[in-house]
Amino acid sequence: MAKQCAICDKSIRAGFQVSHSHIRTKRTWAPNLQRVKADINGKVKRVYVCTSCLKSGKVKRVI
User: Fold this and answer.
1) Which of 5, 42, 52, 56 could form a disulfide with 10 if both were Cys (CB 3.0 to 4.6 A apart)?
2) CATH class of 1-63
C-alpha cells in the first residue's frame, strides 16, 4: 500500500505535465508526508501525516 496521510488520506496523485507546445507527459504529485509520533485515541503511534494537517493542528504530536 502506498504511503498516505493518516488523517486526511492525502496520497500521490497522477496527471499530465503540459508544455507550451501542449506535449503531455505523465508525472506525479506527492504530498509532504512526515513520520511523526502522534497521540491517536489515547495511544502513541508512529504515523505518516502531511504537513498541512500538522500545521492546522489536526494532530497532537508527542515528543
Assistant:
1) 5
2) mainly beta
Beta bridge partners of 35: 48
Q: pTM surpassing 0.90?
A: no
| CA–CA separation, 19 and 13 (whole Å) | 19
In this structure, which amino acid lies at residue 29? W
Residue 16 has what DSSP assignment?
A: E
| All cell numbers assigned to 41 | 485515541
Q: pLDDT digit of tens for each residue in the chain (63 aa)?
A: 579 999 999 999 999 999 999 999 999 999 999 999 999 899 999 999 999 999 999 999 998
